[in-house]
Amino acid sequence: MSRPADKENSGYVSKVLRFTTKIYQKELLKLEYRKIERAYERQGQGWRIDWDWSATNYNRIALLNVLAARKPAGAYLEIGCFQNNLFDSIPLPLKIGVDPEQGGTVRATSDEFFAGNTRKFDLIFIDGLHTYDQVRRDLVNALKVINPGGWIALHDMLPRSAMEQHDDLLPIGRPWVGQGWKVAFELLQSQGLDWRIVKIDYGVGVIRVETPGTALADLSSTLAGSTFPYFYENHPRLPLVTWEEALPWLREA
Predict the structure, then answer these.
(1) Is the pTM of this model over 0.90?
(2) Alpha carbon distance 89, 143 (integer Å)
(3) CA-CA distance, 32 to 181, in Å (whole number)?
(4) Dihedral sign computed on CA atoms, order 210, 129, 141, 78
(5) Mean pLDDT of the chain
(6) Is-contact 130 176, C-beta < 8 A?
(7) Contact, 183 vs 168, CB < 8 A?
(8) Which residue of 92, 113, 153, 199 is 20 to 30 Å from 234, comparing CA positions?
């Protein structure tokens, strides 16, 4: 029969083991991050663009609400909802949020949702898986279901370093912008789209669809293998605007 002191000691040992295991796992993640970081030195890791996202109080929530106010009875679609920080902030009567894990209203991948969707939308926000292939598919599908004069926005369009645009989610809590930036260079070659990238919140791409049925230019043969140096050297070609520059366009275009 165990004594109270034995149980107390056992509980203490268990707590110490859990704490030690947690520290050990955290150190392993740091080592993995450093390993990836060293590998990315050959892909322009030393290059960095000094965008300070804390320099403005405006973020994607503010931007999407400006667009939502243009059509108070409009239909809204959000791809990638996570904790619903944005989804719950959009004051539109019809909202559909798609996420395979949490948040929103539809538990599915975006590919599964679009395969069965028959609805049209006035405002679409894309913030799902940040790989180039997936962002591209989400944008192509969004262009098919946007109403004339509707708006499509994409999050995480402006990586500041090679690590931020790593092609997969890193195993430690660091910003992951991914490689959705590549569709920006396809948008440069696409007709019938009026668009900007607003320099807030890791870059928010905003597209006004002037011509229904517009197709996204396909530069995948060039862009698929491109890495951060391509973005670093070519980002001045993109229509980058500040919040103050974007606001009249968002309200009046």
Answers:
(1) no
(2) 23
(3) 25
(4) negative
(5) 87
(6) yes
(7) no
(8) 153
Reply yes or no on whether the pLDDT at 126 is more than 80: yes
Which helix (H) or strand (E) segment is 67 a member of?
helix 60-68
Residues in the chain: 253
Q: Tokens 């260079």, residue? A: 185
C-alpha 89/C-alpha 81 separation (Å) is 12
Confidence of residue 9 (pLDDT cuts 50, 70, 90): low
Residue 37 in this model has a pLDDT that exceeds 70: no
Calculate Rg over the CA atoms of the chain.
22
Tokens of 105: 């209203």
The sheet carrying 94-98 orders its strands as 94-98, 75-79, 121-126, 146-154, 204-209, 193-198, 240-241
Listed residue (62, 63, 70) closest to 92, CA to CA: 70
Angle, CA of 137, 143 and 145, to the nearest 5°:
105
Question: Between vectors from CA 209 to CA 203 and to CA 211, what angle results, nearest 5°?
Answer: 150
In whole angstroms, what separates CA 34 from the centre of its chain? 24
